[in-house]
């Protein structure tokens, strides 16, 4: 059978990994694809010391790749919204299939890209864009195709999980662990995308679109980062039997879709709570299958390349099939425009930590504020001041309540003369 020829744009962490995996495992890959996959050309701005490109043609102009008549599949591994978008749309325009790991591009410009691909009868595949090497796009779109998805929740940023794990286990400093994640190639070009939850929000947007059959709505995803998580909260979470994870959560409710990324306390008994380091984990609950869990490396050269190459293999396997036979993003005419709930309308449990003057009646005032708003307390710890300079602390876990009621309660607690500073709030998910 005729080989499939690939052009790789970007030879950094993921591009380099993809080149090496395609080369090293060429025989196994050809057996699975039913034909040989040949790297025809590479475009890069910087050479990669971990890659020997041998006799493969290398250019610094991506246009040479996406207009190359020899190339069947263009693999976009540059990142960002500008050159990457030119590459993807240029490839589609030239009748080529596309594989990309670029979640930012898909989450923000996916609708335009998928429409262009559909018009041209080509595929756009992006397994590497969500949870790196874990085949979670395939699991949700194909493996769980029979189900009405009720909810999904995931640790979907490797850099963030690496930082939280190292802070908790080794007491390391946030900035120091972030620098290591960057050196290991896990972080985005702009690492605020990782620590402020933007990257996770891109991924949650994509996964939720497939899970619920809704448009890509990145701008409606509530996003909160991990940069304000303190070692104190990590310690109290442990004491209460929880772990703090940077979680993407989406849920189908009668009022709309709940779509959010934020630091989250999860009971240690839930398997996702102990998924550490650069690993990602995604739980998906479907009405027929119940709970399912997918775990694996969420970032890094070869784990991500594993997903990129799997997409190339899928394209190669179906290469002679008609375009409609390939599994693309969603059938456009079947997309439902269900509303995404504003954060004030979501329901969840909460962890609250407040610093108070160490005097009689403080606890009672806080309890009254909560009970007047129908908020039930599930657990409570009171910590005496550690020294004369520090304050007493009250740590609370509540039952589920609507966020706007909790906002109102926090405002009232902060207005008490006994409360010092602002209240720390972390949402709690039991994942059931
Ligand atoms: N690093 C990771 O673990 C993961 C990254 N991704 C995504 O994969 C994509 C690539 O990320 P990395 O490999 O980490 O980035 P990187 O910064 O390591 O590599 C980018 C590559 O693009 C090349 N490049 C930049 N501008 C260019 C231009 N104008 N023309 C030709 N080449 C150009 C650079 O020379 C470099 O080879 C991004 O979309 C990222 O979000 C997805 C999953 C995991
Ligand atoms: N920066 C991302 C890379 C993979 O998507 C992460 O850390 O998860
Ligand atoms: Na994936």
Automatic annotation (TrEMBL):
Residues 351-428 form the ACT domain. Pathway: Amino-acid biosynthesis; L-threonine biosynthesis; L-threonine from L-aspartate: step 3/5; Amino-acid biosynthesis; L-methionine biosynthesis via de novo pathway; L-homoserine from L-aspartate: step 3/3. It catalyses: L-homoserine + NAD(+) = L-aspartate 4-semialdehyde + NADH + H(+). Gene3D superfamilies: 3.30.70.260, Dihydrodipicolinate Reductase, domain 2, NAD(P)-binding Rossmann-like Domain. SUPFAM superfamilies: ACT-like, Glyceraldehyde-3-phosphate dehydrogenase-like, C-terminal domain, NAD(P)-binding Rossmann-fold domains. Transmembrane segments: none annotated. Its EC number is 1.1.1.3. It holds the Pfam family ACT. The keyword Amino-acid biosynthesis applies. The keyword Amino-acid biosynthesis applies. Keywords: Amino-acid biosynthesis, Methionine biosynthesis, NADP, Oxidoreductase, Threonine biosynthesis. PANTHER family: HOMOSERINE DEHYDROGENASE (PTHR43331). Belongs to the homoserine dehydrogenase family. This is Homoserine dehydrogenase. The lineage of its organism: Bacteria, Pseudomonadati, Pseudomonadota, Gammaproteobacteria, Oceanospirillales.
């Amino acid at each position: 059978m005729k080989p499939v020829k690939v052009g790789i744009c970007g030879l950094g962490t993921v591009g380099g990994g993809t080149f090496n995996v395609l080369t090293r495992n060429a025989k196994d890959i050809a057996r699975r694809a039913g034909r040989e996959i040949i790297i025809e050309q590479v475009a890069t701005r910087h050479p990669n010391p971990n890659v020997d490109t041998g006799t493969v043609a290398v250019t610094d102009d991506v246009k040479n790749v996406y207009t190359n008549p020899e190339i069947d599949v263009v693999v976009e591994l540059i990142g960002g919204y500008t050159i990457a978008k030119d590459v993807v749309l240029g490839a589609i325009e030239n009748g080529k299939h596309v594989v990309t790991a670029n979640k930012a591009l898909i989450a923000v410009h996916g609708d335009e890209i998928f429409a262009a691909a559909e018009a041209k009868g080509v595929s756009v595949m992006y397994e590497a864009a969500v949870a790196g090497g874990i085949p979670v796009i395939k699991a949700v779109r194909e493996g769980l195709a029979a189900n009405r998805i009720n909810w999904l929740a995931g640790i979907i940023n490797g850099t963030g999980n690496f930082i939280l794990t190292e802070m908790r286990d080794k007491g390391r400093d946030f900035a120091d662990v972030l620098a290591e994640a960057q050196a290991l190639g896990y972080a985005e070009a702009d690492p605020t995308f990782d620590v402020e939850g933007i990257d996770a929000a891109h991924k949650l947007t994509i996964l939720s679109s497939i899970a619920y059959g809704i448009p890509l709505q990145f701008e409606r995803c509530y996003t909160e980062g991990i940069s304000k998580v303190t070692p104190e909260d990590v310690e109290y979470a442990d004491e209460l039997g929880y772990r703090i994870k940077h979680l993407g959560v989406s849920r189908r409710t009668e009022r709309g879709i709940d779509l959010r990324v934020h630091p989250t306390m999860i009971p240690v008994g839930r398997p996702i709570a102990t998924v550490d380091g650069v690993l990602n984990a995604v739980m998906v609950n479907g009405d027929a299958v119940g709970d399912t869990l997918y775990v694996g490396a969420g970032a890094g050269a070869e784990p991500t390349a594993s997903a990129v190459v799997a997409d190339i293999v899928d394209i190669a396997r179906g290469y002679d099939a008609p375009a409609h036979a390939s599994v693309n993003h969603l059938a456009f005419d079947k997309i439902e425009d269900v509303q995404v709930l504003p954060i004030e309308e979501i329901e969840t449990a909460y962890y609250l930590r407040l610093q108070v003057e160490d005097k009689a009646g403080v606890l009672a005032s806080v309890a009254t504020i909560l009970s007047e708003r129908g908020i039930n307390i599930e657990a409570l710890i009171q910590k005496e001041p550690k020294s004369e300079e520090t304050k007493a602390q009250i740590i609370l876990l509540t039952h589920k309540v609507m966020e706007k009621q909790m906002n109102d309660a926090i405002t009232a607690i902060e207005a008490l003369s006994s409360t010092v500073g602002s209240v720390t709030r972390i949402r709690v998910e039991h994942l059931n």
